[in-house]
Amino acid sequence: MGRKTGAFEAVVTYDETLFERDKLLEFGAVVFNNTNNEIFLPEDFKDLSAIDQAREIQKDARLKKNLLDFIAEGRGLAVIHAGIASLREWPEFGEIMGARFDNHPWSAGSSVTLRVEEPNHPVAQAFGGEYFQITDEIYQFEGNYSRDRIRVLLSIATKHTDMNKGGAIHRTDEDFGMSWVKHYGRGRIFYCALGHQHEIFWNRKVLQHFLAGLQFAIGDLEADATPRNKTHNSVP
Q1: In 3-state terms, what secondary structure has residue 124?
Q2: Is 113 left (phi over 0), alpha (psi -120 to 50) or beta?
Q3: What are residue 110's phi and psi, to 5 degrees?
Q4: How far is CA 81 from CA 30, 129, 141, 154, in A?
């Protein structure tokens, strides 16, 4: 996407050393594309010796602080789909994102109708209207999710979506934000819950939405991230 548009240069990596402060400051934004769990700890953490675990915990804390400072001081973070389930043991990540992953009542291959809450918002213009249908794995959120904290751009249109999911749906307010922008300190946050199924990454409108969100996170696209505490029911 960066090569096609010339909008940014991407470094695609699993190298966590890029989160050391001197290296991190070379970037305008970080993207978590379907990351999950404790991304700064090794997968075999539980099998390490006590000394090695202590060293990894120290590194984990340092890299988290680097990321927090990077954002708060004016850089950006863009998170795609499962990325919001990253860093589950770090309370501040919920504050950065404005929500925590709960579950996915609509499993992979589910079709839902989404509402474009602000069709003219620079990050949501790609969809060109108020509603569209999408097939993907669809999340709901918990924790500190609140429209007092985020500016929701896409949400589930509950009147046009199968809500009969047994006990899997935990929210009682029927508010299922799917994409939003917000600020954290002086930094910019973009989140979109779409992106489980491969074909999502060939959907032109979704890609345009991702591009706009990335440009917002980088700081190249001006867009209002002021929370709108209208509920989804206030949107026609």
Answers
A1: coil
A2: beta
A3: -80, 145
A4: 15, 22, 12, 13
Domains of the chain: 2-234 (3.40.50.880)
Tokens found for residue 135? 């097939």
The mean pLDDT values, 10 residues at a time, for the chain of 236 residues are 94 94 97 96 95 97 98 98 95 96 95 96 95 96 91 96 91 95 98 97 97 98 90 48
Taking the C-alpha atoms of residue 152 and residue 133, their distance in angstroms, rounded to an integer, is 17
Return the SS3 of 37.
Answer: strand
> Nearest 5 degrees, angle CA 198-CA 199-CA 203?
130
Minimal CA–CA distance to 40: which of 72, 68, 17? 17
**Length of the chain, please?**
236
Contact call for residues 103 and 122 (beta carbons, < 8 A)? no
**E strand residue ranges, 89-130:** 100-116
